[in-house]
Design brief:
about 450 residues; 8 strands; two-stranded antiparallel ribbon; mainly alpha
């Protein structure tokens, strides 16, 4: 019991150490998503020339999102004519070259890892751009595009607010309400990843014996250790099922356990090859292309981790010390506490703005809680909008399952009792709602 409590305490104080950074990161991410045009993103990804790749990377950084949503957006851009290599670079950047990730890396692991995120990310993208034309035949890429056109051929209108310039939206309450909507929805979408990441990191930091890490990471063998660690880092990410920012506390626990600097960097980059995402790639692009994606991602992530490690050594950049404890496991009246209190007030303001937003242009994914533009969703089922096909599939499985005991409100995602919930019938399907407000919003919504 003591080990369990110590693990929970370790995980909680890792969260406490990074709370203000999470609020800041999600707020900045929401603002950028609200003010950067999706149409501009799509127009920018027409080829994979160096200038296009740089612009694509910047746009990816601007559209910070979880790995599942990033994969869905990359798929949508590709199906609408974007270059395949650029679409994958966009996916890299939107999950690995983002502000909130860098801040949390700095707090839990040190500034060196925050710097490595951007330097290693650039190396990873450059390696992929060189590798992709040699690994993904043009015929297979176009066959994958045709597959998407067949399976997801619906087209949508211009995203909400795109008719107005970003300067006008920046000065409007509506624009900031949309930004708050993205911030709150992103946090809702990633809550599971964050909880799992902090809990698993707490368990690893407290309960896993040191000799397990010694066996796993084979320390003391020079370049052999470096090579083994950058290969095994992504493999751990593949089997851990934790992606996006949720893998940072887990990375901190692994680094404390003895994995090399380069192995940790490779692990952080490898959120895009977590097993559920590899399955999704198969559904999007077919198994052959998905297998090539998985292997090429693994290769460039491992190589980028190794090259970043070697580059830092050559430049004399010292690696962070391995801490006896990742975060101080007690409360104190210090900078972290002050920042957390300030940013909890910021979070309250963001939530208030979120409640003021125009619901007509957006829907809430009933599975993950992400805010979805109705004009540009990741997937649609009937009158319900989703961030990705993964969420759509999970939702439809719920509808197919027996619903005698419970149902899911398709507007807010709440679990309701069909015996007492308000309901409506559409296309022969009965939908249940937590309140009349959700039912009315559902009935007013049409694709």
């Amino acid at each position: 019991m003591t080990t369990v409590l110590d693990s929970l305490r370790e995980g909680f104080f890792m969260f406490w150490e990074t709370l203000w950074a999470l609020v800041l990161g999600f707020t900045l991410s929401g603002a950028v998503q609200a003010f950067v045009s999706r149409g501009e993103m799509q127009r920018a990804l027409g080829d994979h020339r160096p200038r296009t790749i740089v612009k694509t990377s910047l746009l990816g950084m601007a559209s910070s999102s979880c790995s599942y949503a990033a994969s869905a957006l990359a798929k949508s851009l590709f199906s609408r004519g974007a270059d395949f290599t650029s679409a994958m670079v966009f996916m890299f950047a939107s999950t690995n070259l983002v502000v909130e990730l860098g801040i949390v890396l700095w707090l839990l692991l040190g500034w060196q890892f925050a710097l490595a995120e951007f330097i290693g990310g650039a190396i990873m993208i450059a390696l992929f751009v060189v590798l992709a034309p040699r690994v993904f035949p043009h015929a297979e890429v176009e066959a994958a595009r045709a597959r998407l056109d067949t399976g997801h051929g619906h087209q949508h209108g211009e995203p909400h607010g795109e008719q107005r310039g970003w300067r006008d939206r920046l000065r409007s309450k509506e624009g900031w309400a949309d930004a708050a909507g993205y911030a709150v929805s992103d946090l809702t979408m990633l809550r599971r990843e964050l909880v799992i990441g902090y809990l698993v990191a707490g368990v690893i930091a407290v309960a896993v014996p040191a000799d397990v890490f010694t066996t796993l990471f084979v320390p003391g063998h020079g370049l052999l250790t470096d090579l083994e660690n950058v290969v095994i880092g992504p493999l751990i990410a593949f089997v851990s099922f934790v992606c996006s920012i949720g893998n940072v506390p887990l990375a901190a626990a692994l680094y404390e356990g003895g994995i090399s600097f380069g192995g940790t960097v490779a692990f952080i980059f490898a959120d895009l090859i977590a097993f559920p995402l590899v399955v999704i790639y198969g559904k999007f692009y077919g198994r052959r292309l998905a297998t090539r994606l998985f292997l090429s991602f693994w290769l460039v992530m491992s190589t980028a981790g190794l090259l970043t490690d070697l580059l830092f050594r050559a430049l004399g950049v010292g690696f962070p010390h391995r801490k006896a404890e990742i975060a101080m496991t007690r409360f104190a009246w210090d900078r972290t506490t002050v920042l957390n209190l300030v940013f909890l007030l910021v979070a309250a303001v963001v939530y208030w703005l979120y409640r003021q937003r125009d619901n007509g242009a957006y829907a809430k994914d009933p599975v993950c809680g992400m805010q979805v533009e109705k004009a540009n969703p990741g997937a649609v089922s009937g009158d319900v909008y989703f961030c990705s096909d993964r969420c759509k599939d999970r939702y439809e499985k719920r509808l197919d399952a027996p619903t005698a005991d419970a149902a899911t409100d398709p507007v807010c995602g709440m679990t309701v009792d069909p015996a007492t919930a308000t309901s409506t019938v559409r296309d022969g399907v009965t939908y249940f709602f937590c309140c009349d407000g959700c039912r009315e919003r559902f009935e007013a919504t049409r694709v």
